[in-house]
Amino acid sequence: MPSFLPVSSPHLVLSHLRQRKFFLVSRSLHWKPRHEYKLTRPELLDRITRLLVLGRYDAVNKLSFDFSDDLLDSVLHKVRLNPNASLGFFRLASKQQHFRPNIKSYCKIVHILSRARMYDETRAYLYELVGLCKNNYAGFTIWDELIGVYKEFTFSPAVFDMILKIYAQKGMLKNALHVFDNMGKCDCVPSLRSCNSLLSNLVKNSETYVALLVYEQMIKIGIVPDAFTCSIIVNAYCKEKKVEKAMEFVKEMENLGFDLNVVTYNSLIDGYVSLGDIKGAERVLELMCEKGISRNVITYTSMIKGYCKHRRMEEAENVLQRMKEEEDVIVDDYAYGVFIDGYCRVGKVDEAIKFRDEMLKTGLKMNLLICNTLINGYCKLGQVHEAKLVLRCLGDWDLRPDSFSYNTLLDGYCREGHMSEAFKLCDEMLRQGIEPNVVTYNTLLKGLCHVGAFDDALHVWRMMLKRGVPPTQVGYCTLLDILLKMGDFSGALKLWDNILARGYSKNTFAFNTMINGLCKIGKITEAEKIFDKMKELECLPDKITYRTLTDGYCKVGKIEEAFKIRDLMERKGIFPSVEMYNSLINGAFKSRKLSIVGDLLAEMQTMGLYPSIVTYGALIAGWCDIGMLDKAFNTYFEMTEKGFAPNVIICSKIVSTLYRLGRIDEANMLLQRIVDFDFVPDLKFLENNVVGVDAQKIAKSLDERAKSFCVPNNVVYNIAIAGLCKSGKVGDARRVFSSLLFTGFNPDNFTYCTLIHGYAAVGDINEAFKLRDEMLKRNLVPNIATYNALINGLCKSGRLDRALRLFHKLPPKGLTPNVVTYNILIDGCCKAGDTRQALSLMCKMIKEGIAPSVITYSTLIKALCEQGDTEESMKLLDQIRKSSLDQSLVMYSKLVQDHVKSGNVIKVSKLHNVMHLSCLPSGVIFDKQMKLTEYCNLHDAYGVSEAAC
């Protein structure tokens, strides 16, 4: 029996109660729940779940347990029907120092929240989830986990639509397309809004073809497009250059009852403008008027851009004026920017400045884009000083130049050859905190290549690599061009292998650079091999590839091979351009196949191509080179009738031909029209020849046009001096030169080289060396052409020993002898009877990597035959057959072999004269009738037409 305290002792009862209370309080202060760390796993899950359901998140936080992926997933699974409890525990897990929820946990929480229609929270965690993706593979993993949770929970397919839109907005288009393709497997159709987001971002990222495929799939699964969808699809068609298809789509949508908005029509206008079809853009504008669709600032700006693209600035101004007149349209700085850019592109920067000032007066602020446009406009005109002033004024408009500003001005300096200013600008960029980028280095490389500073270009290349700037294809191709121009063929081949190894094996631009470089240095066989390699690697040649190769063949006189390339191009569906026909015309003249010239012009007309100023220049130069001035004059008059203004190159060609043919009065009269040449009439050497009628007509046509030549007087003065020297009037050329010095004329390398050549040719070698010394005093460094002239003069005057001594002094002077140098000396040795020395020189040139030409072999074989050394002559012929790829050498060996065997020295000598004649530079006229007749007799062997004779 339990004993009770007596009732009569209230104090004892009270005391007892107080002690009990103290005991209870003490237990509550020191209690640890059967110590949760001793709880089993199921017990811990139950305790956490109950506390979460009751909303006691603080109590959960005080529990002693370690978060893990398994625990978080298990709790979320148990409370999945209670979104608040799930969210509370997920947030608690996210705040832990040493734990972060994994992808699977994120996928569970977004499904739970989406089912509860807590869409803002769902999107927030989906963005966090997508942020965990480091690559496309992680994105695909997320999709797999979302599918797994969907099957486990069996609710909320809305998550799929949300993730589709988020992937699209973040530019994760592969993942977005994967979701779009697989949503159907979950019986879920994407919403129109998510589809529009996907389409819009595909177009924005230039995936226009894919966007059109997605649209087709949308229609198949029953998603009805809206006006926004239509605008995106029209834009996609336009970016695909299928503007007519876009127009058909618009008509189809309107027939289905869609009310298309101004955005759709603006896309159409922009599409036509991008194709250069301004009439199509005007038709869309008319259509907008018919349908009552209001035009906005974007509509008018696109039209301005179209007119500017066609250089129709007057119409562009009319559109700008219309914009100002419309109440609902406010002309913005972008519209003015397009207009200013248009005037800069046509070279009217003054007009551009006028509109810039007008823009500022309306209260609009200057922006960096317009400033960069003006800098670019001035640089293209060669007005680099004005471009620099624009850069300096940026601070006045609270603008800071960017890398584009500096790189544009840098390009201007490099184009003008002002490399010291270019490097100063680079230093300024660094001071302004703008690091030179790959465009900066590429620009410097091209500039240094342009001025021939190849060693400096290589230094810049090494500096770029040292600073960790990765080269682009432009840099590699520029370096390739530099090495080829330096004559470093082996270095160019090594770099070429490197370019292919770096993944540019399908880069047409790289192949074009290599082919062009090889063609320019006359290595047409090597260029053919690169072309074959291009086809082997399945890199598609473009019109530039074919044109470059055609031009290369034409320059070496292989007109038949050039036509084969033209035919191959046409079979590939690429039609020749005017530029290609210009090359073919040059090739026809070089190979003296004059009958082809007329056929080429007729072909051009058939194909709807019209001769350009370059075409007329090629024709005039060609007729001048073969001495047919009547045809050259007729072509000149046809050119001016067509509205083409003759340029200084064409006029110079006519003038130099007149000088060469001894028609000095006519040449000087034309020179007077090109430049102020006051001293010409006072020269006593002028003969009172009658000036031809054609020359008078040309002179009259030049009176106005010559003002636009903008050519330095030095160029024309050099033409006059060269013309006099070629006509044998070296003394008169010297007197003209002396007179010019008093007018402020600054002679250059070309001037002195021409005079030295002239004096050496007439045997006055002492005067030639005086000019060389005078040249050195002016700090002008003679080039190999100058020394070739001096060596030639010494050989002609019988001073072979002195010529050889000068030859051996060339390397210390930093000059490398070329094939012309060796041919001059070999000819001199042969004429002096020293064939042993001549053969030694040929061995030396081969050792130096210089291939002997047909002149080299012809000179030696002639000399050996004259000495009766048939055996050595046959050895040389055998050497040609075994090693030569030069068709002219092969042809020569076939022609001369029988004559050498029979010892027919006269025929060998005559053939040598013919070969020497056929290899003369274009522009040399056949002045000896005997040589001309022999040349014509051999036309079948050489493929030369009768018309050339």
TrEMBL record:
<protein>
    <submittedName>
        <fullName>Pentatricopeptide repeat</fullName>
    </submittedName>
</protein>
